[in-house]
Design a protein that fits this description.
This protein is mostly helical. The chain contains 10 helices and 2 strands. β1 and β2 form a beta hairpin.
Length: about 190
């Protein structure tokens, strides 16, 4: 009996008799669907949009840990970096990313610029791109143990437990981020 009720409910939601509407798919295709399905799609889209920013708030960037590699930048780039930091702090991540892309072209091996880029991508919801930038930061010849912690955190969020553990071991050896190490180890144990 429950199956029939569910089937009827779904049928009424997806196919109310005689009421058809057009819905434009994001890629531009016009779809013919029922008004009930249109409402369901709207609700689902709202749920996705409502939950998406939650992952971006998982951690705050430690700007103080980026100064070492930022000191080696030319003065003109340092001014741009200050603007980028202001943009990130005010939530204008699209604008920050544009400036960071320009800065990265002139300073491709600056770990702090790569960390800023990764964090901006993370805030925009591009977790894979953020991990790729964190990997570049990790491989850069400058920086400190924070770039390893940052890489470890993004690897964790991307489901790459082995990379996370390996980088966390580096940070643990350095000994300058005990609180961050302890928190990430705690998160790893939960998984």
């Amino acid at each position: 009996m429950t199956g029939n009720i569910s089937a009827r409910w779904w049928h009424s939601l997806c196919e109310p008799p005689g009421i058809v509407c057009n819905v434009r798919h994001p890629c531009g295709i016009l779809l013919r669907t029922s008004t009930g399905m249109k409402h369901l799609l709207t609700i689902l889209a709202a749920m996705v949009l409502w939950t998406a920013p939650a992952s971006a708030a998982l951690f705050d960037l430690r700007f103080d840990k980026l100064t070492e590699a930022l000191r080696i930048l030319p003065d003109a780039d340092k001014t741009s970096v200050n603007e980028v930091i202001s943009l990130i702090k005010s939530g204008r991540n699209d604008d920050a990313l544009k400036k960071l892309n320009m800065l990265n072209m002139g300073n491709p091996e600056n770990s702090s610029l790569r960390v800023l880029t990764a964090y901006t991508l993370f805030q925009l919801g591009n977790l894979v791109g953020a991990l790729q930038e964190a990997d570049k930061a990790h491989d850069a010849p400058n920086g400190n143990s924070y770039k390893c912690w940052f890489y470890s955190k993004l690897a964790f969020l991307n489901g790459q437990g082995e990379v996370c553990k390996r980088e966390l071991a580096h940070v643990k050896k350095a000994g300058d981020l005990p609180k961050e190490v302890k928190e990430l180890e705690k998160e790893l144990k939960k998984k």
